[in-house]
Write a structure and sequence with these properties.
Residues 34-48 have a biased composition (Basic residues). By secondary structure, the chain is of the alpha/beta class. It is 54% helix and 8% strand. It has 26 helices and ten strands.
């Protein structure tokens, strides 16, 4: 089956490559030639598997692609929408959407063939083509038994799309790139991404995935490096799956300098690695190439200068030492000392100017999404009553392990954090106005708690319709204070921040908590940075997400030269 698939893929490549670079007016002739060899074979229905954003194209969204303009009266609009739904084009679209939802390529191709029938032809739109290409690329990437057939149909559909003069968008070309990758042709997948950039269509991370992963799977480190360089030039930042693939292919090729560079890039962009990436890193340090990489002698002054220049935790002077590495998992004690090698990790400082810039960015985002006067009013209040040593996300704390909000639970945390802060001042308590004025807030004992907070100038009630996340985050950042919350801050609001600063800030300022019969236990930020660290003697410590939990110690990769132990 693999031989047959490879042969089919080889037959496809000249046609697909020609489609990518030939003028659209030539495509009708290519279609007729291409379709002569197309067999309509049955396709297995793919299960609804989840895919990385770097490897898949989301199913086309009808609202995004065909949003119409306003105009006419409401009744007229409703009538037009009804007629559109009931038209052959609308019915075809609905059926394709159902196929896309159910990953049903067989039915989608049958509908497509029927739409091309001379007896009842249906004009195809961008959305129709994107649904079909999405389904073909998914089948080609996930089902080895029908991969070549699905790819062939996908290229055929793309050829007709271009011949019909339908302009592709990013989703279209990403599906085509996935088709190329499924035929083991990373160069073609990469050419599709370059075509995007040339056509003024900004590529996304998922657009680069097919070419990058295909090059890495083919052990073509140079090709993968070209894709990475193109990503950088386009302002597209790789995530952990892309970095892990690049690390693996360069480690397998013994390219020590590239592995060194990529480890530092992972340090900057990822900080802590998953177990899959950790295994790639461990395999590198155990390899012969890693043993041979490095120098016997180096200038300690240059290494020290590199550490100071980089802010601590790394020097960037290349591999130090020679010989085999000793590699194993380890844990850190409360002071950041490795329990395996005795190396003490450092706390990497944050530049105050970065904090100021981040606070300004928060303000700009907040006033776009909150009522401007409400948020500016909060900033004015904070200037009068602050600064605070700690800020409490009271909604998160009050609902911890409970369906009902508990003021007494919040108050126990208020008292606990007050005891550990330098000023012993009451922390700032951020709570929505509805919580302050309604529900169990009216109970006498809760009124007493609220009044004590108000008298201390420590309670701020966010206005109706607001998102209190903006308020407690801004307060904690601008006051350089601790932030008490178990919120992992991974939702859409925090993704808007789009900066490498936020994970570093969170690591040094977030206080998480647990409760027992004795009350709250505060888990303060560690006195060291949880990030890949390169020591001045050449050893490495790589934090993993294994044990990324309040109750379990984090696992670290500890890698030292055997000769230095």
């Amino acid at each position: 089956m693999r031989v047959a698939a490879a042969a089919a893929a080889g037959a496809l490549r000249p046609t697909a490559a020609t489609l990518l670079f030939s003028p659209p007016h030539q495509h009708r002739r290519l279609i007729s030639l291409h379709r002569r060899g197309t067999q309509h074979l049955p396709f297995a229905r793919r299960r609804r598997d989840s895919y990385s954003s770097t490897a898949t194209v989301a199913a086309p969204n009808p609202k995004q692609e065909d949003a119409g303009g306003a105009g006419g009266e409401a009744e007229g609009k409703a009538a037009r929408r009804r007629r559109a739904r009931e038209s052959p084009e609308g019915n075809f679209r609905h059926q394709l959407d159902m196929c896309s939802r159910n990953a049903d390529l067989t039915t989608a191709l049958r509908l497509y063939d029927a739409a091309l029938s001379p007896d009842s032809p249906i004009p195809l739109s961008l959305h129709h083509y994107n649904c079909l290409l999405y389904l073909c690329s998914n089948a080609a990437a996930s089902d080895p038994d029908s991969s070549a057939d699905a790819a062939q149909r996908g290229f055929d559909i793309f050829a007709r799309m271009e011949a019909d003069g339908v302009q592709p968008n990013e989703a279209t070309l990403t599906s085509v790139a996935r088709l190329a990758a499924a035929t083991r042709d990373p160069a073609m997948a990469f050419s599709v991404v370059r075509r995007m950039a040339t056509a003024g269509i900004p590529p996304r991370l998922r657009s680069y995935g097919p070419a990058l992963f295909a090059y890495c799977e083919a052990k073509d480190a140079d090709g993968a490096q070209q894709v990475e360089a193109h990503m950088d030039a386009s302002g597209v930042v790789p995530e952990e799956p892309e970095l892990a693939a690049l690390l693996r292919v360069n480690a397998d090729k013994g390219r020590a300098d590239e592995v060194y560079r990529l480890l530092h890039r992972t340090r900057t962009l990822v900080r802590q690695v998953s177990d899959t990436t950790a295994q790639v890193v461990e395999a590198w340090f155990r390899s012969d190439a890693a043993s041979e990489a490095g120098v016997d002698k180096w200038d300690p002054r240059k290494v020290k200068e590199g550490v100071i220049k980089g802010g601590g935790g790394w020097h960037g002077q290349g591999w130090l030492g020679k010989g085999p590495w000793s590699v194993d998992r380890s844990e850190m004690d409360k002071d950041g000392t490795c329990q395996r090698c005795g190396e003490r990790l450092v706390c990497i400082d944050i530049d105050p100017s970065e904090t100021d810039n981040f606070a300004n960015s928060l303000t700009e985002l907040a006033i776009k999404r909150e009522t401007r006067d409400d948020f500016l009013g909060f900033q004015s209040w904070l200037r009068r009553h602050g600064p605070f040593d700690a800020v409490i996300d009271a909604a998160n704390v009050g609902l911890y392990n409970s369906k009902a909000f508990s003021f007494s639970q919040v108050n126990s945390v208020v008292n606990a954090i007050q005891r550990v802060t330098k000023s012993k001042k009451l922390p700032l308590i951020i709570l929505h106005r509805n919580r302050v004025n309604g529900g169990n807030a009216k109970a006498p004992h809760n009124q007493k708690i609220l009044e004590s907070w108000r008298k201390a100038g420590a309670l701020y009630a966010t206005p109706p319709g607001s998102n209190d996340d903006w308020y407690w985050l801004y307060a904690a950042v601008s006051c350089r204070s601790l932030l008490v919350t178990n919120d992992e801050m991974r939702d859409h609001l925090f993704q808007l921040l789009g900066t490498s600063f936020f994970p570093r800030w969170k690591e040094k300022h977030q206080v998480r908590l647990t409760f027992s019969g004795r009350g709250p236990t505060l888990h303060l930020p560690p006195p060291y940075s949880i990030v890949i660290q390169e020591s001045e003697d050449g050893s490495w410590h790589v934090p993993t997400t294994t044990g990324d939990d309040i109750e379990k110690p984090r696992q670290w990769i500890c890698s030292t030269r055997k000769s230095s132990k």
